[in-house]
Here is the input.
Amino acid sequence: MASSAAHPAFPSRYGSSALGKLPERPMTTFGTSTSQQRGDQQRAERERERLEREHLEREAQNQLSEEQKEEIREAFTLFDLDKDQKIDYHELKVAMKALGFDLPKAEILSILQTHGSLSEPPNPNVPHHPRLLLPFKEFQSVMTQRILARDPREEILRAFELFDEGGKGKINLNDLRRVARELGEGLEEEELAAMIEEFDMDSDGAINREEFLGICLQ
Here is the structure.
């Protein structure tokens, strides 16, 4: 009878050998990736909007005359009492009034809420009541838009009021004489009288609002 020999054991295909173990893969957090992409897109969109807004502001300012730009700078500098390049509610109100815009309280507050920022405490150890402040750049932008949107007749009538001392509703020879003196213009009496005569359509010896508008708009 043949003796039975022990056969060598075959290696198991599914054994616990490390050679057959697949490397572990880190799990991808799809939610985090998508959130980051969305954040990047939002930041890019905000930057695009900022650049576009600055471009439009530059174009608008280019439509102003140098005299108008200087008036805006002077009004801000004059009423920026603490010289911090920011103005508060009261300073903004008088600065805009100096430029010909006498706005109600609600509209002034709306400008500050839209374009301004809260003041920072000068000393963290001292109680601070924050105020809304408007920097020069935002003031310049607001005033540029308002000046460009203003009816040219309003500008002309503002100039008329500078001539019309006492609010008579007319510019007479004395008014012209005074303005010529203030501007340093050495005009003769005959020249001033000729100016009145040329534009005085109703022959009352003075120039009224409508006649003044006709002079400036022709």
